Amino acid sequence: MKALDQLTFDNRFASLGDAFSTQVLPDPIADPRLVVASESAMGLLDLDPAQAQLPLFAELFSGHKLWEEADPRAMVYSGHQFGSYNPRLGDGRGLLLAEVRNERGEHWDLHLKGAGQTPYSRMGDGRAVLRSSIREFLASEALHALGIPSSRALCVIGSSTTVWRETRESAAMLTRLAPSHVRFGHFEYFYYTKQPEQQRVLIDHVLAEHYPECRDAEQPYLAMFRTIVERNAELIAYWQAYGFCHGVMNTDNMSILGITFDFGPFAFLDDFNANFICNHSDDRGRYSYANQVPIAHWNLSALAQALTTVIEVEALKQTLELFLPLYQAHYLDLMRRRLGLTSAEDEDMALVERLLQRMQSGGVDYTLFFRRLGEQPVADALQLLRDDFIDLAGFDAWAADYLARCQREADNATGRRERMHAVNPLYILRNYLAQRAIEAAEAGDYSEVRRLHQVLTRPFEEQAGMQAYAERPPEWGKHLEISCSS
Ligand code: AMP
Ligand code: MG
Asked: What are phi and psi of 260, to 5 degrees?
């Protein structure tokens, strides 16, 4: 375990030079104080968890101090926002501080969000508010604990600095960890600004550092694009299977690694609703829950367009066609597991779809349904769940088919509860839980953020005294308007 001054740095992206990022020093926030830190994220840097309690920790992650070996930089990128191309985005309030190499040889970007203005800030103040920093922290760590690929969050540092959004709010900084902060939008930037040499440098960097296994393929760039398509198909399958709505799937928010990235007005579904829109500025529902699948494909097409400089169009098109079938296979696999099924039958997708339709018409809690379905014996579990549905005859028909389906599996009942509870969380990051923790934090009490974070690090295990975190949301908590300003 290391102390903060014992980290090993290796700033590979920074070494690509000024065409890719601009050196900017973080602009500190006043009176830094630790709001919350993730012990498991600290572990990725080999950091001793006790280091989070030191004043130096809050100073480093609020811009007051900087390692000598750090090389803080704002990255340049562009991207498609709500379908329209925006030629110049970039880190407007984030800085890639440094890359840390841990003892396992892994590289982790240290990225400070809310670090002040950069050449890419446009009209923004370069800050992040406490509310959105806490939301991103909790979501990254909760997704990771669910087994869903995501950027990680090291800590949130609060401050007495205030910023103006719809109202006056406190500023904070979030430190994000990821093996890379390169987005689809990075490739688009060099494509649309017609800088093929620089684009090639970027592609080779990503290939060498993040897709080394593709280098030996006959066409390394195509192999890399194919892997990106595969990873996105798997990622979106996870989102759909677990009811995660990203909310702002612009191409600048899509990681080149296929991990969940850049959290805005995200939400986990409470009641199942395929048309759910978590982003209140998304009037047309471009990024609704159900649209995440076609939008991911759209985003991959935008990336493919940018890669036409190095890969033949026909090969890109064929590779893009893999997305949907790959997604469907992953999704079905995850849903079979959520239903406790261990074998495959042709009608399984129909069984899933029929269930979701009934859940939607009944306003059934998406997470708790699967959790409770895992109780034994299954017939009793179904009987208890029945009360949540409005169309009882519809539910009974489904339940009879499901029961018969389970009975066709010779050993379905063996280890069923453990098997299902291991994939069906009891605790998810419901918006109202985050909201309660944020309100306490805004009043200076960080204990609720820390407790919620702890609960969410073990989402599949029933935790003593934490029943309140596993309840359906109260009425006020179901329709929270999550502000997009952050
Ligand atoms: P986001 O909505 O966080 O994905 O950000 C979209 C773009 O706006 C990125 O280029 C951000 O860096 C930039 N941005 C968002 N908020 C701010 C802010 N408060 N100050 C400066 N730039 C910002
Ligand atoms: Mg973004």
From this structure: -65, 135
- 264 in contact with ligand 1, CB cutoff 6 A: yes
Nearest CA residue ID for atom 11, ligand 1 = 92
124 in ligand 1 pocket by Cβ < 6 Å? Answer: yes
Task: Write down the residue that tokens 């029943």 correspond to.
Answer: 467
> Residues 58, 60, 65, 70: what is their CA dihedral angle, to the nearest 10 degrees?
180
41 vs 411, which has greater pLDDT?
Answer: 41
Q: Which run of H or of E encompasses 246? A: none
DSSP string over 8-47: -B--TTGGG-TTTEEE----PPSS-EEEEE-HHHHHHTTB
483: phi > 0 → left, psi -120 to 50 → alpha, else beta; which?
beta
In angstroms, the Cα distances linking 252 to 390, 401, 445, 460, 462 are: 41, 44, 34, 32, 37
Q: Which residues are catalytic?
A: 252
**Largest CA-CA distance found in the chain, in angstroms, rounded:** 68
Q: For 177-192, what is each residue's pLDDT tens digit?
A: 999 999 999 999 999 9
**pTM score:** 0.98
CB of 4 closer than 8 Å to CB of 54: yes
Which protein residue's CA is at the shortest distance from atom 17 of ligand 1?
124
- pLDDT tens for 155-171 read 999 999 999 999 999 99
The residues near 129 (Cβ < 8 Å, ≥ 6 apart) are 114, 163, 165, 169, 170, 171, 172, 485, 486
pLDDT digits (tens, 9 = 90+) for 218-242: 999 999 999 999 999 999 999 999 9
